[in-house]
Amino acid sequence: MKPLLILSFKFPPMGGVGTRRWAKFSKYLARKDYKVHVVTLQYPFHDENSWAADVTDPRIIVHRLPCHVPLWMIKRENRMFLETWGSMIFKRIFRSSAIDIADGWEKFCVPYALNLIKQENIRNVIVTGPPSSLHFAGALLKKENPGIHLIQDYRDPWNTDRDYQLGQGLKSTMAKERSLRMEKEALQAADRVVVVTRDMEKQLKELHPSITDRVSTIHNGFDPDETMRNHSNPAPTFSLLYSGILGTDRALRPRALELLANAIDSLNDAFIRENLTIHVTSDIDLDFFSFSPIFETIKKNFRFHPFINPSRIPSLVHEHTYCLSINAEVDSHAFGSKVFDYMAQGKKIFLISNEGDLSDVLKSKGLFTATYDLESVKQQLIRLKEDFLAGGYKTPLDYSEFELPRLVERFETVLI
Predict the structure, then answer these.
(1) d(CA 302, CA 110)
(2) Same domain, 102 and 204
(3) Which alpha helices (H) appear in 32-80, and where do they start and end?
(4) Can you give the pLDDT at residue 92?
(5) How far are the Cα atoms of 72, 82, 101, 184, 248 from residue 96, in angstroms, in the given order?
(6) Is the overall model pTM greater than 0.70, yes or no?
(7) pLDDT level of residue 346 (50, 70, 90 thresholds)
(8) Integer angstrom CA distances of residue 275 from 149, 269, 299, 379
(9) 13, 119, 139, 277: which has the highest count of C-beta atoms within 10 A?
(10) Are 25 and 86 within one domain?
């Protein structure tokens, strides 16, 4: 077996979208007879919404190290009231000097990883963030052992992301300057840098021209094991499904739902008004929009549901006719992971985003892409209605370029 090391602060049984990419990539690398060592955090909780079922292959060996902060600070689900508020206060204090939650964990992970690399004769080391400070730990590994082949895997941007911007995630100029220095060292140490969208690739090359020849895009993807295309199709309904985090900042993704409601209302199209139902499986509910000027339309055309276990998402997507993806106005570079759940079932996707990589992909397939402009959303709703009435939803779309086995083959090209 070919050994490799993945350094990841987040990994199942921890839940959240940050664990998905390397749970899935580990699964398919193991199937290609890699001995996948994962160095991660001791996480004594078992989150319901995790991809733990994907990392049971005995060729995936998980090494769990102590945490440098209180465990209740990283707990994701079923928090008590005091844990929630304590975590918020502690994080505010912690981030006055640290750049993110993983800052400081290098004192555990770097010595352990160096020893593991020596014991297992590992050459390929993949460091994935966020938390982005972990990439600096990768640079330390490279300095201590120049013989490794270091791959920095950016699931999100680093210093251009809101969480690392001065005055938002970072509260002091000292922390920001340190974060910038850490990223520079992390990128200089990398043999290869992998990002998850072409927009991120373009931005990183512009900001760091010296690494241009080392940067490439390998998207997230969908798991063909989760496809339900051979199952009988449910009775068609004129419905859109949104599954994923929306957050409670009205200026971000929730704004897209109000924009959709405004479009439904101003179109005054009887078929759309009476038949379109938008199902939202997320972290907000109808009460979130209680004071919205478009509340009555939201109440009529939207249905809100709580999060479900990832294992149930394929059947949920299969039940709906169309799927909805949203990028916040400031996040047009994003390529939301739930998109791949939609792709696994061959669904047609309705996107609201101010252009970006995902928009380009969906446009190339003739799908429904709107910007944060009311007229744009109205036009795409009309197209959606016409497609539904013509039965365009009956033929599953081909998204095979985003199948995980193909993406893992691409990732093998950056290994040595």
Answers:
(1) 48
(2) yes
(3) 71-74
(4) 64
(5) 19, 21, 11, 21, 24
(6) yes
(7) very high
(8) 55, 10, 14, 17
(9) 139
(10) yes
Q: How many domains does the chain have?
A: 2
Do 332 and 353 contact (CB within 8 A), yes or no?
Answer: yes
Is the domain of 136 the same as that of 236?
no
Burial (Cβ within 10 Å: 0-12, 13-18, ≥19) of residue 209: exposed
Is residue 62 within a helix (H) or strand (E), and if so which, with residue range?
A: strand 60-65
Q: What is the DSSP letter of 61?
A: E
Task: Tell me the pLDDT tens digit for each residue of 149-192.
Answer: 999 999 999 999 989 999 888 988 999 999 999 999 999 999 99
CB 193 within 8 A of CB 215: yes
Residue whose structure tokens are 């000097």: 97
End-to-end Cα distance, the chain: 14
Which has the closest alpha carbon to 343: 357, 325, 326? 325
Query: DSSP letter string over 339-365?
Result: HHHHHHTT-EEEEESSS-HHHHHHHHT
Whole-Å CA distances, 115 to 98, 124, 138: 26, 14, 14
* Helix (H) or strand (E) segment spanning residue 326: strand 322-326
How far is it, in rounded angstroms, from Cα 81 to Cα 103? 26
Of residues 136 and 235, which shows the higher confidence score? 136
Neighbour tally for 150: CB within 10 Å: 23
Cα separation, 391 vs 348, whole angstroms: 12
Distance in angstroms (rounded) separating the CA atoms of residues 336 and 86: 30
HEC string of 160-179?
CCHHHCECCCECCHHHHHHH
**Same structural domain, 330 and 382:** yes
- Return the structure tokens found at 355: 């252009």
* Residue 305 main-chain phi, psi, to 5 deg: -135, 150
pLDDT digits (tens, 9 = 90+) for 66-111: 998 887 777 776 666 555 666 566 566 666 678 999 999 999 999 9
Collapse the DSSP code of 121 into the 3-class scheme (helix H, G, I; strand E, B; otherwise coil) and give the result. Answer: coil
Q: Are residues 169 and 233 in the same domain?
A: no
Q: Are 75 and 48 in contact (CB under 8 A)?
A: no
